[in-house]
Design goal:
2-enoyl-CoA Hydratase, Chain A, domain 1; alpha/beta; 288 residues
């Protein structure tokens, strides 16, 4: 009886494995096929569209490793009139934002295509860094825009260690290797160091904005670069953006079309489905 149950269990596992493999291959083929298809009925002129949603950080959909190849595909589409980035993001890491920003500038130069940015709910911090690589920026009157600044967050746990009676032992080679250790008291030198680093990063951000918005900024730089944010309507008066409008407004005004071919979206769906499939498979295997 036990042998029959074991045999039946292994048959179930083999079935699940084959099903998962076939489903994965099918999704991959559909993803590859659909990524080359238009997402609207292209009867004539169209633009390449990329939707960017979420934090700009390594390991997610809005990272340089994911996005730069998609940007290349969108720009290299010979039939596309231009490229539109539909962005909804609070920002992210300075390095990832800078890489994406620089890639857009490089592809603009290589393929000679206009780039339009459309901001949704948020176009702030690193997302705005990316946006200034575009030729025109559109936002909703209520889009939170700006936040041209840099922030570093940390915690200090020195009092907790003392109360718990814990002795922490750390050995380093290099006198500053344990700088900003949350279990050590913060020193004036630590504060000065982190401030100098983020000041450099902030300066790079400022320079990117000044270059991308050259001749367009109307606000006081001492206020524009404080890390503050504004509504889309106010951002327009400050010269941080060019127009109020949505995706369709932008494509119609800039390219005289509302047709688009979306890049990257199908791959995101594939990752979502494959992730759900993997979770379901793990669950079935556990209960087999």
């Amino acid at each position: 009886m036990k042998e029959k149950r074991a045999d039946r269990r292994w048959r179930n596992i083999r079935f699940i494995l084959w099903f998962a493999l076939i489903a994965y291959i099918t999704l991959a083929m559909l993803s590859h096929f659909s990524s080359s298809l238009p997402t609207t009925g292209l009867g004539g002129k169209y633009v390449s569209l990329i939707r960017l949603d979420g934090m700009i950080a390594p390991g997610n959909d809005f990272s340089s490793s994911e996005l730069v190849p998609i940007l290349h595909d969108a720009f290299s589409d010979k039939n596309a009139a231009g490229v539109v980035l539909d962005i909804n993001s609070p920002g992210g890491t300075p390095v990832q934002a800078a890489i994406i920003h620089d890639a857009i500038l490089a592809y603009k130069k290589e393929y000679h295509k206009k780039v339009i940015i459309v901001g949704e709910d948020m176009l702030t911090s690193g997302a705005y860094y990316v946006a200034v690589a575009g030729d025109q920026i559109y936002v909703n009157p209520n889009t939170i825009t700006g936040s041209i600044g840099v922030i570093v967050k940390s915690f200090g746990f020195t009092d907790i260690i003392k109360k718990l009676g814990v002795t922490r032992r750390v050995y380093t080679a290099g006198t500053n290797k344990d700088r900003l250790d949350p279990f050590l008291p913060e020193t004036p030198e630590d504060i000065q160091k982190i401030k100098s680093v983020i000041a450099e990063v902030h300066k790079n951000f400022e320079q990117a904005v000044l270059a991308g918005r050259k001749g367009k900024l109307r606000g006081d730089p001492s206020k524009l670069f404080t890390g503050d944010f504004w509504s889309g309507e106010t951002a327009l008066t400050l010269g941080l953006v060019d127009h109020l409008g949505n995706l369709m407004d932008a494509t119609k005004k800039e390219f005289d079309t509302t047709e688009y071919k979306e890049y990257g979206g199908s791959n995101n769906i594939f990752r979502l489905l494959s992730g759900q499939l993997s979770s379901a498979f793990d669950s079935m295997l556990y209960w087999a």
